[in-house]
UniProtKB/TrEMBL annotation:
This is GNAT family N-acetyltransferase. The lineage of its organism: Bacteria, Pseudomonadati, Bacteroidota, Bacteroidia, Bacteroidales. GO terms for molecular function: acyltransferase activity, transferring groups other than amino-acyl groups. Residues 2-145 form the N-acetyltransferase domain. It comes from the Bacteria. SUPFAM superfamilies: Acyl-CoA N-acyltransferases (Nat) (SSF55729). The keyword Acyltransferase applies. Keywords: Acyltransferase, Transferase.
Amino acid sequence: MDMLISTTPLSFTEFSDFVIASVDWFIPSLHELSDLNGWILKMYLNGSMFYSKSESEITGLVVTYYNTSKNFVYIPYICVHLDYQGHGIASQLIDYVVSQLASHVYGIYLEVRKGNKGAVRLYKKLGFCEFEDRGVKYLMKKEIQK
């Protein structure tokens, strides 16, 4: 699949439209967040975006937060558009994030629902391990070797 990974800032409309379109692709739905619009705005204003496009359509999006005092990255949002799932986009995006940030951080963290077996399997394949059990979720960590 022809895919371009970019870090060029998206407009707030492009960003929020993609996230809002994806809310029901998650279980439970992101509609269950107490302040979905505030969460979207926080990610847009404070996060770094890595996304893939096929022609003009966003196919996948990863948002990262960089903790400068502890030298780690937290990924609060990873999503591949339903029409493009199963084509390796999530793997390519995460590999790209790791390659861009590895020289600056010692670890990358993300949270995943235990029931999302496909995502857990993918993250393990990409070098993440279960770092903390959070009930229905795992906090997973990828250590970056220096």
